[in-house]
Amino acid sequence: MRHQTIAWATIIFNLLVMTIFAVLSKAKPEWFSAKGQTTGAFNGTLFLAFFLIGVASTIVASEFQHGTIKALLYRKYYRGEIFASKVITLFLFSIVNYVLIFLYTLILKFVLFSNVALDAKVGKTTVLGQLGLDLVGSFIGIWLILALVLLIANLFKTGSAAITIGILSYFAASILQIAQSFAIEKWNWLKWNPLNMLNVGAQISDSTFKSVTKLSTPLLTTGSLVYTVIFLLIGYYIFKKRNV
Prior knowledge:
This protein is mostly helical. The protein has twelve helices and two strands, in the order αααααββααααααα. Helix 3 runs antiparallel to helix 5 and helix 6 crosses helix 7.
């Protein structure tokens, strides 16, 4: 029941945030560009990461914190099945949110900004194309963080540590961007570190960002996906070995 409440709260809150930014863009066009807000999904993903990080940390830690893992094991569920079901649940929940954000962006665009054409040029693509790139990049980036959060959540009895590290990781890419860029210039191999992979969203949205990451967009995307799988596999292993 608690997870269902969080799920609905996440969806409603994100749609509310999008509505506020859309109305502000309509009322104050000098503050917010209608085209820019449309391609950015009216900031629909602005707080989504925090909700998903919270869900990812509690969905695992709560089983051990409240002892419900014992009941599941008594029903002869394998630990691998339990962990996989949680990853799949989180994945589907994140998919639903991103699809809703995409659809609601189109609704807001047609209702409030009929003058913004979806096929209008934005850089090398269109408004619709840029919207898609922004959402895909955000989705890949947030799942790298969620995989890390799921790993960390398996190491503690409560989800607070996983939430803290997940949120810090979310901001780390931008906070350490300049320092990391200098470090990569000096030690080229550092471009393969996980923090650099967190820039995948920014680079998919803006290909010129490769001057910072020193990796092509396909390589950066592949690296992000590989680290995501690695973190999930480590989390799976820890979950299987963890004492009940």
